[in-house]
Amino acid sequence: MNIRFLRLAFATSFAALLSTVSLPAQTVAPGAPRPQGQNPNGMHVYLWGGLKSHGVGQHDYPQWLADWSKILTEHGAVVDGALHPPSAADLEHTDVLVIYKGDAAYLGETEKQILLDYVKRGGGIVSFHDSLCGPDPAFFASLVGGAKKHGEVNFTLDAPVPYTVVDKSDPIMKDMTDLTIFDEAFYNMTWSQDPKIHVLATAVIAGTPSAGTHKGEVVPQIWTYEHTLPGGQPARAFVWMQGHTYADFSNYQIQRMLLRGIAWAAKRPVDEMINYVPPPRPQGRGGFGRGQGFGGGQGAGQPGPTLNQR
């Protein structure tokens, strides 16, 4: 196959992916118009994704970066992101860093220090699925409350994950019921001890071959974590340990929980993105606006009404 063609195809598809990510307000050139539909007062979210791994429909980090840059923008956030770790400049104006990347806890010394500086100033972190997997789980647990060591068998693989919501009064879990999804659950976690995590939901570990004797254990799968690093300001983290099956991001209850968890970690009102109403679309123009929520319909990958339909 022609190598030049492959390079061109990759460059084109990668550019198309990055074009879906809105630029934060600080990077808009002076005098340049703001991207249509962007909320200038929204929380600043940085999405850290990764290259696609696993089988079809699993661990689709690039698709998540594309999808959630749109979803969060439609719900009033100012979004930036990339397929590589954020720099100090990327995090300078970020309220919450959202990570969906396999083994993101593999960090060099420079990357560790950037994260530590960000959290010490009170920056929030949200971790999905195996983002919290790495060689030093104690370090990453100090940032998000819990982590798992890469190389240990501590996962169910594809299996039912039956949630039990243990804190139904927490506003993040407002729309969550004790539902079961088909995904992957982790056990054998390294947990922060001082302070401890606040558990929002647990799951019973399914009896898969990889689970072995851990079958039937009840393990936290969704939690919040409030802490203060030495010399720093209070910071927050929110963790959802599923996302092995990418379609579970589209579950209505889970999407609303994630939007609330992201807002909470950013120290914003929990329902800020849930209740956000975008401004009316300018008359006679197409483009962003008049979203009808997410998970389907207008504002979620479907075309809006034409002029004749308004």
Short recap of the structure:
By secondary structure, the protein is an alpha/beta fold. Helices cover 22% and strands 20% of the residues.
Please describe the structure with a list of short key phrases separated by commas or semicolons.
9-stranded mixed beta sheet, single chain, 310 residues, Rossmann fold, 3-stranded mixed beta sheet, alpha/beta, globular, 6 helices
Would you tell me which CATH topology applies? Answer: Rossmann fold
Number of strands: 12
Individual helix count: 6
Structural class: alpha/beta
Order of helices and strands: HEHEHEHEEHEEEEEEEH
Instruction: Please report the distance between the alpha carbons of the first and last residues.
Output: 49 Å
Q: Taking all residues together, what is the mean pLDDT?
A: 85
Main sheet: strand order? 2-1-3-4-12-11-10-7-8
Q: What low-confidence regions span 5 or more consecutive residues with pLDDT below 50?
A: 1-26, 287-310
The percent range for strand residues is: 15-25%
Major sheet size, sense and barrel closure: 9 strands, mixed
How many distinct folded domains? 1
CATH architecture grouping = 3-Layer(aba) Sandwich
Our Rg estimate from Cα atoms comes to 20 Å
**CATH-wise, what's the superfamily?**
Class I glutamine amidotransferase (GATase) domain
What is the quaternary state of this protein?
A: single chain
CATH class membership:
Alpha Beta
